[in-house]
Amino acid sequence: MEKVKDRFLRYIKFDTKSNENSPSCPSTETQKIFGQELVKELNEIGLANVTIDDNSYIMATLPSNCGTQKQVIGFISHLDTAPDMDGKVTTPNIISSYDGNDIILNQKENIILKTKDFPEIKNYIDQEIITTDGTTLLGADDKAGIAEIITAMEYLINHPEIKHGEIKIGFTPDEEIGNGANLFDVKKFGADYAYTIDGGEIGELEYENFNAASAKIKIKGRNVHPGSSKNKMINSSLIGMELNSLLPVNETPMYTENYEGFFHLTDINGTVEETTLEYIIRDHCKEKFEIKKELITNIVNFLNQKHGKDTVELKLKDSYYNMKEKVEPVYYIIEAAIKALKEADIEPKVVPIRGGTDGARLSYMGLPCPNIFTGGHNFHGRYEYIPVPSMEKAVETIINISKA
Predict the structure, then answer these.
(1) Which of 34, 79, 302, 379 has the highest local Cβ count within 10 Å?
(2) Topology of 211-320 in CATH?
(3) Is 80 a catalytic residue?
(4) Selected catalytic residue, list 80, 174, 198, 358
(5) Over the chain (404 residues), what is each successive 10-residue block's mean pLDDT?
(6) Among this protein's residues, is 175 annotated catalytic?
(7) Sheet holding 274-283, edge to edge
(8) pTM to 2 decimal places
(9) Which of 133, 154, 175, 396 is catalytic?
C-alpha cells in the first residue's frame, strides 16, 4: 500500500496534458514517453501480455490463479491530464498531518487553499495530504488512478493466496479532450466488464453521467471606422454577447448540481470583425439534452434572421451519452463494487458523474464500465489535492473487486 504514494509522486513529474488542437493520437508526445515508462513497470512487476500500440493505448493481463472460471474484469485509467494548466509537478506540497486550517500553497504568489472555499478538506484532518505548489494542477486525474491500479495488481501478484480470476488493465490517451475511447480495442482488451478508476472523493461510485455535446460558434462581423459606421458596422463581439444573453442564466455550472444540466462557455475570442465562442452542453436526461441542443440551434437561427444570413455559424457535435442505459442491465457489477467498498470499511457514495469518463463511451462500445473514486479533489486546477489514505483505500477496493 505504501507504494501507491511513491508511484503517484513519480508519475506527476510527467507533464502529460493533452492538446485538443492536435490531430495526432496521442495528442502530445509526453503521453508516449509516460506510456513507455509504464510499460517497463508493468513488465517489471510481472504482468503478462503487456502491449502499447502506436497510439499509446496500453493493455496488460493478470492471469487467473484459481480454477474457477469467472467473468474477466478490467480496470482502466488515462494517461493525460487536463490542458487547463501545466501538469508537470516538480514541487508538490506534502502535508504529513493536516491540521484543518487554510493551506498556503505558494507564499510568494499568495495562493492559498482556503477552507471557506473548499470546506470538504476538513474531512481529512490528521491525514497525509498531497497538494500542488499553486502553479500547476496536481494530476490526480488520473495519475492517481494509474498508481492505484498498478499497486493493486502488484499486491495481487505478491500475494498469491488471494484468489482471483483473469484481470485486464488498460490505460488510454487523451481522455481529457474526449478522445480516450476513440481507438480503444474492446475485443483485444477481452474483459466482460470494467471499472474506470477516475472518480473523485473516497467512496464515490458512479454509473450515471452527462449526455454531452460541444458547440463551436463563429460570428462574422464587418468593421468600419466608428466615426462613420452607422448602419454599416456589424460588431461580431456584441452579437456574441447577445447570443450568450439568450441562454438561460441559471443553467451554467456555477448554479447547477446533482442532475441539473448546463451550458458552459469554455472559450471566447472576439474583435469587431470576427468572434468565436465554444460551449459544452451537458444534461443527464436525454430529453433535456436534446432540448438544450435545440435551444442553441434556434438562437443561432434567430440571430441570422436578425443580423443577416450566415452571420453566425454553429458546429454542434455529440461527445458521449449517459452510461446508465448500458450499466443497469448488468447491475450486479455495481453491487460487486458496493460490496468491495464496504469490505474496505468505506461508505459507498453512489452519485451521478457531473462530467464524463472513458467508461461512458466504452459502455456504448460493448464494455459496461462504471467509475470508481481515486480520492482526489478539485481536479483540473491549482487547488487540486489528494489524501494519501484515500489512495490506499482505492487500492484496497480494486483488490476486493478482484477477489474470486
Answers:
(1) 79
(2) Alpha-Beta Plaits (3.30.70)
(3) yes
(4) 80
(5) 89 94 94 97 97 97 86 96 88 95 94 96 98 94 97 97 96 92 95 96 95 96 94 96 97 95 96 97 96 98 96 95 94 97 96 85 95 96 96 98 90
(6) yes
(7) 262-270, 274-283, 211-220, 312-320
(8) 0.88
(9) 175
